[in-house]
From TrEMBL:
Start-end of Low complexity biased regions: 110-119
Organism: Streptomyces nymphaeiformis
Protein name listed in UniProt: GntR family transcriptional regulator/MocR family aminotransferase
Molecular function per GO: DNA binding; DNA-binding transcription factor activity; pyridoxal phosphate binding; transaminase activity
Stretches for region Disordered: 79-129
Matching PANTHER family: HTH-TYPE TRANSCRIPTIONAL REGULATORY PROTEIN GABR
Amino acid sequence: MANEWSTFGADLHLELRGTRLRAGLMDALREAVRSGRLEAGTRLPSSRSLAADLGMARNTVADAYAELVAEGWLTARQGSGTRVARRAAPRTPALSTPSPPSPPSPPPAGTGRARPGAPVHNLQSGTPDLASFPRAEWLKAYRRALTDAPHEAFGYGDPRGRPELRTALAEYLARARGVHARPERIVICAGFVHGLTLIGEVLRARGVRDVAVESYGLWLHDGLLRRAGLGTPALSFDERGTRTDELSGLDGCGAVLMTAAHQYPLGGALPPDRRAAVVDWARASGGFVLEDDYDGEFRYDRQPVGALQGLDPERVVYFGTASKSLAPGLRLAWMVLPQGLAEEVAAAKGAADWSSSAPDQLAFAEFLRSGAYDRHVRAMRLRYRRRRDQLVAAVAEHSPETRVSGIAAGLHAVLALPPGTEQATLRAAAWRGLAVQGVNRFRRPAVPPTLDGLVVGYATPPDSGWQGALQALCGVLPQGDLTTG
């Protein structure tokens, strides 16, 4: 049989063949996308509308849409409807015989150099589920904050940030992260990078030559410190984490940058004896510990690991951010500073760039005071834990020899790979439309390569793409194979 529908003023013809309506509809949609008749970004009719036009049950159309979303042909987002994906690609076929990942096959002769297309599935770390941003609650907080805001809030104000937000943060951080904070020692900044830039400038002005860093971390942070004129010697690591005992042997080192609660990206928490050791070093040397508590709210399997800052607020600079708990686009982060640094950092911020929107700060203060932030974090903690558990279960089933680590907290996991296979696995992932990062992308240049693995951000994909992303991931793991029931 043949049916057709018209949507948004454009005549689109679907040829539905066979007696299996769902399969026929899926085949017709795939062909329409493959041929270019449905261009990337085209919004499709709702399942209810299309079902009425084609004389099908709504569930039949909804199931077909969901399957095509999982395969990567379509995307679905609340409020935006179902659309043709920017790069539609067929689902990776299940392998009848498990095999390790291999480099992509060469292109046919005469076709030039082939390249993988744009990613269909994003498993890169560092971004939360943006579709879960609490828009309604945020809008309520924004309205209340603007209604109650004093007139002077729309002026230049204090470079440290709005007092309403600094007061709300001081209470929240003491309760949730064990941070000793007073509002006058908090400086609001436009993200962790902004805060680290300010600290680097202040430390260099104080005569600090080097800021030690962990063996693995974001290369961007090294670059910011180096641009401030600071060296970045890397501390080695072992099975217990970063070797803090090496600090005493670094002449001229005035600070150390650490992710003590959840090392990024390897995932472990710094053991108690090493936490104490790094603070003892700071006291003895007059240095500072720069604590990046980037995802401290998300711990799943045991009691939260408190902030290092609680051990000595006068030697630890605490960095927090809303980028993981809410969204990076808010550009809201904060530093809790020792008394000796607070005025210098505020002066550096005021002299360079104010950077933080007063209405957004007021809204976030209201969001914290109302309890909406706590409710959102609790809900997202449950959501991410389910994602993590599904990831661990899928890997255990389809690649049982792959070890998953760094899963007690945060928004990402590390999947160990056989030595020497990381680059081949990344190439195979790219050809399957999967964006994922290798462990060695985060290795400091001076650190010898000793690990191979994938850093998998399980918070990033929307619900509609999560199963497809898991399928693509398992398809590139050693002896990996993901079939659907």
